[in-house]
Amino acid sequence: MDAPATNSAQDIYHPGVEPDDLELIIKQSSHLWDRLRNQHIFITGGTGFVGCWLLEALLWANSHLDLQLTLSVLSRNPTAFIGKAPHLATNRAVRLIAGDVTDLQAIHGKFDIVIHAATDVANKVANPEATFAQIVKGTQETLALAQRSQADRYLLTSSGAVYGPQPEHITHLSENHPLAPSLSDISTAYGQGKRVSEWLAACRASEAFKVSIARCFALIGPYLPLDAQFAAGNFIRDGLDNKPVTVNGDGTSCRSYLYAADMVVWLLRILFSDSALSCYNLGSAQSISIKELAETISHSIYHESRVTIAVPPRPGSPIQRYIPDTDKAHRDLGLRQYTDLRSAINKTITWERHRRNQIIPFPEVRA
């Protein structure tokens, strides 16, 4: 059942994130907006971190550029999404569709673009088979929907997990590395599922049905869950709860972080890449250790170090990395990192503070 829109008929959009971030997206994607005019876009995962940012950007552009977009957003619980983000869920351009990504057979109609951004990692350790099955089935269902709705483009948000553990001698993972998660490691269900999903999407690619794949690495920004498996979110939670910023490991692992507004620019440019099948890493190439990340977040909140490291580093132990090589995206699509990490951290902390205090983060801005 579709959830009815409840906002006024005015095309005025009041964002839930900084207008400056949305203006960055508008500017860096300026050559793409005409291609989105009058488009009907179907989005899975629209209520999560990636999806909320896509909706923020698309609704902002729709309001300011009069794109006449229609956004059909799949949600397992539309009522909960209305409570979480009413400015997104009740916008007149948004049509909420109650359902599960593993069963879309009842959904019909014409969609110009299908964006499959649903990612459920809650059971990836407790029930790896269920995680794998859900990821693969969701991709099958969204591909079938794109096919029967005669969509022109399909975007799959995949993951750097498709590469498996990053070898110690490789500092940055490129798209052509012949790496994969170990078949004997049942904890790799998420990466295995995403890898199969990419293969399924590649099978459907044609000149009439373009497929784009974004292999997402670590991200940061408003809407990032603070109580999940994301180190940056956990550290921000610790600090805002007035607790020590706690590193559960030894802090030597290295990651890189792309800000959410930058992520949307990358997703849009990857979506509109020219080839029938394209695949790009999405992330920052600037490495930072988990300890350094914790220190940076601690200083942003406390203006001093209040970091605790659970396990002392073992001399000579290999450093675990999860960092993309983004040269292909730079070369082919002109993409780069637009927001430095310190600014990204401060923006995320400010947004979360406002959310906790139930303050409207940003003033109303008229189109």
Which key features would you list for this structure?
367 residues; alpha/beta; Rossmann fold; 8-stranded mixed sheet; 3-stranded mixed sheet; 15 strands; 37% helix; 16% strand; disordered C terminus
Note down, in words, how this protein is organized:
The protein has 367 residues and is an alpha/beta fold. It has a domain at 8-220 and 257-284 and 329-341: Rossmann fold (3-Layer(aba) Sandwich), CATH 3.40.50.720. The protein has twelve helices and 15 strands. The chain has helices spanning 19-28, 33-36, 49-65, 78-84, 86-89, 128-148, 189-204, 231-240, 260-271, 290-302, 327-333, 341-356; strands at 2-3, 40-44, 70-75, 94-98, 113-116, 153-159, 210-216, 219-220, 245-247, 254-255, 258-259, 277-282, 288-289, 307-309, 321-322. The strands form four sheets. The chain has an eight-stranded mixed sheet with strand order 1-4-3-2-5-6-7-12, sandwiched between helices. Helix 3 (49-65) packs across helix 9 (260-271), helix 6 packs parallel to helix 7 (189-204) and helix 10 packs across helix 12. The model is unreliable at 1-10 and 360-367 (pLDDT under 50).
C-alpha Rg, in Å?
A: 20 Å
| Average of the residue pLDDT scores | 92
User: What is the overall shape?
Assistant: globular
Our count of helices gives: 12
